[in-house]
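Bug report (template v2)

What were you trying to do?
Predict the complex of my protein with calcium ion.

What happened?
Run completed; filing so the output is reviewed.

Input:
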Amino acid sequence: MYGLLKNSILFLFFLLVLSACRFGNEETRFANLILIDSTDDHGDILFKAAHVIPTPRQLEWQKLEMTAFLHFGVNTFTDNEWGDGQEDPKIFLPTNLDANQWVSVLKEAGFRLVILTAKHHDGFCLWPSAFTSHSVKNSLWKNGQGDVVKELADACVRQNMKLGLYLSPWDRHEPTYGSEAYNDYYKRQLRELLTNYGPVDEVWFDGAVGEGPNGKKQVYDWQGYFRLVRELQPQAVIAIMGPDVRWVGTESGYGRETEWSVIPIQDSIPVTADDLHDNMVKPVLDETREEIANLEQLGVAGAMKWYPSEVDVSIRPGWFYHASEDRLVKSPEKLLDIYFNSVGKNSVLLLNIPPDRQGLIPEKDATILKVFSNSLRQIFSNDLARAARADDNDFTISHLPKNTNDGHRDTYWSPDEGNAAPFISFEWQKPVWFNILKICEQIELGQRVAGFQLEILEDGQWIKKASGTTVGYTRLLRFPWVRTQKARIIFTDFRNTVNISEIGFYQNMPEVTLTPPGKPFEDSLVVTMSTNDPEANIYYSQNYSLPSVASNLYTGPVKLNHSSPILAIAINPDGLSGFIRDEVYSKAKYKARLLTTPSPQYMSEGALVLCDGLKGDLDFKSKKWLGYENQDLETIFDLGQSRPVNSILIHSLSLVKKGIFPPLQVSIYGSGDGENFQLIKTKVENFEAHPEDGLVTWAVPRIDRRLRFVKIVVSNRLPADDDPVNGFLFVSEIEII
Ligand code: FUL
Ligand code: CA
């Protein structure tokens, strides 16, 4: 299905020669796609690579920095990630859908474009497509009169947000899927979306593909799809399976350390003469490889093209909303880390925030986005470079150093091509503190930097503090705090020469570390607190109130004799504060000992976990759980003195798909001396009454004894079952009442 680009190379060559005649040499050095000749040596290839540039639509897209994804559809109501196309459209029934809420939450958080899954793999359309019955028009939502795409498009216009659309090529509902007729069907749907809803700035063609309802796979008419997008929405970038925007290769939120936007092409989706004019060459490559654009790879390619990276990741484990993931929303800190590793690594971030069954972005996700974006504002509103005097080791007079700290991305510094190690330096009137460096290239002139380092002047010596490889549109580096009056950035490796549009120095939010992190303890525990910001003070509370300068000032180790949370924050003299560190320390109620050993990855703090008063949630990997693989849990509690025991509660878990099975049998033994135990009671679960997946509380009532030592054996095997279980048993707490 994919042809070698080579066929079109000759043709391309003519085009280049033609335009060279038209515009003269200077202009034609720059192009979105440049051919590599078999006679090109390393130098020629690097020179050409330095002159590959974005199209205007790619440039506009790159400037967006943060874009949002909304996965919403029948899966939201069936609790699936991939629907099979057999859903009854009636299940689509958001109770309170409000696209204005989506857009205002996203807008406030700094997103500039939002992409909606107008149709996912299930084929269900969020707009009343004229070409299928599998859509909102056969749902009960607004009596079949609703149109989610329209509501979102209107909200975007109202709030000045750009709109993108996802139309899954893979369709598990449409009967024509797998035949040429499907290409027409798909194009008709694309035409509906791209003509009836105003401007669309990104069209997202998913690479996921499988069989349709009749078991056939589709041969997609990609070039036909691209042509339609170019015709109807010429400003829109075509992403992923398209020619303008490349998938970074993971869904983790973390881009490459070395990320070139200039990509070698060996294969492409076949192109025709017209396609070249409209930049419709989609490179075919394995995006998941660690390196995709090194010199060796450029050397064997037929051409190079500007093909920048997009980092897609979900704020939750899944792409669609699932109530069971409400506790697994990524924290603001995690989102900030993702920002540094996506936007800060020459990529555009595409963060998915799925609306829930009401048709709203859940409040929790919205709050987390707000904290995340506030922290971005806090960090990046104070650029220390602006107050510095910039200088360099170069004689060029046209693009001066001061262009890098003027706050404008369209002015830039460009040293002479003969300067082998150009640097740019910044000097302040008094020492400054920083731990973040930002560098931006003038990508209208290509991506050039391949190696740079940050140095500061200490006692007349330049000391290296951080380094990186590629820069691209934006590169962010974090490193331990430095204090200096003079810093410089040396460009140690680059293609042709560098064009730097901005450099910034910032202060990351001060971090607090609590040692040890929250855990259960026996008698008492000493906790120390530290911060990575030498000028910051730590404030903490022990009662869940939010810490501030009005809370306790940390002056030395804190000794805990009782269960207590600690909420701590570091605040520096400029008022810059970090995230709140929130840990829980709980004193175990009894002395406890395990007779069987949990599996190593679910061992946590051992026996104390069972009597620290903290029950686990569905996140079985959290430290609140002990997990046993193919084994019973056996433990002995010492209650300290003999006392009445009425009943025992076991807090356990059932997640059958994950191989976690609830208890089926619990035996209770008692002892006065901790040595000789007598069986008091065995309770066996009625197998028919097997609970639904989720948290399972198991009660053993009516024990009615005075006991000092209690031995408990919890098993998810049936008593008469000789076969060993294949699975896990998880217990987070045992209550002795
Ligand atoms: C993938 C799809 O299969 C997922 O469901 C999701 O839409 C993700 C963004 O792309 O290929
Ligand atoms: Ca500038």
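What did the reviewer find?
The longest strand covers residues 475-494. The first helix runs from residue 6 to 23.
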